[in-house]
Fold this sequence. Notes:
This protein is an alpha/beta fold and 322 residues long.
Amino acid sequence: MRNDFLDKNFSRRSFMEQVAKLGVGTVLAAGSFSRAAGQTSPLSMPVQAKSQLYNTIPPLFCTAYITPDAPGQENQEPLVARYPLALVPQDARPQYRRWRDKVRSLNPQIMLLGYQMVIEETTVPGPGHNVMRKVDNAWCEYPGGLTPWVHVAPSRKKFRIFDPRKSAWRAAFIEACTKTLESYPFDGLLLDQCTVFTIASPLPWVREEMMAALQETLLELRNTFPSKILIGNSGRPWRGLNGVMDENRPKDYAAEFTFPDYALPRMNLAQTRLSNAHDSETVRREMALAFKYGAFYGAAVDYQHVLWFDAFDEVLMKYKRA
């Protein structure tokens, strides 16, 4: 593993060349792409141009749910900045904003997706989650009044599950996503637990209603934010999203990544959870499979510590030569 981060000159040059080819206006500041107010962002481009542009980005990402001032998690900004795409906390406290700003100062072209929980209650801090914590009377409920819950590792704490058919959940979820996206210039959202659990109801027809309600809400979210990247951490595809994140299920890549009705640009994420940080053989094998289906690839032992592999340098070099 190497310690230098993504070649910013390559990233900037490649980005600008492709923008020029696509005829998309932009503004340069201090020799780099600027996200200042009034300047063109990739996400403000026409859909077709945006899709072509994303095809030029090296398909690598990292999941960086890092607490910047926690012992053992500090000073990872250069490593995160090596990636073209990173999933990051929505937390709006000053240390988190400084951390994201530092990452972007190292790689101005990096795409940052804020983490947003969808279907279960959460203790994770952030403006969007603060909205969801105020929701009541929107939980799944069994006949007889029992409220189901799920265990969340590693604490095994119990969390209740929202019923997406409830109007209170739907309104709060759209507001939560809005608050998250307004709190920082995220390029989009990673929608965690974007699904309907089997435990949500013992009745199959009720679960079908819940899935239909969740699908309708995701389409509303897409209409609300037509230019944002929206990716669901889910075991099934959803219309309106740009793709899904698959965690450690390479056998499902074909079914999940070839769904024809994703929004453009299509951006599926294949995440490998490793048992150790030196398992480069698994990384190469699953990365090749992810690329076969046009997905971005990332690998980690846990989401608080970002890794980089020699195979990723090889990917960057191929895109640099292209």
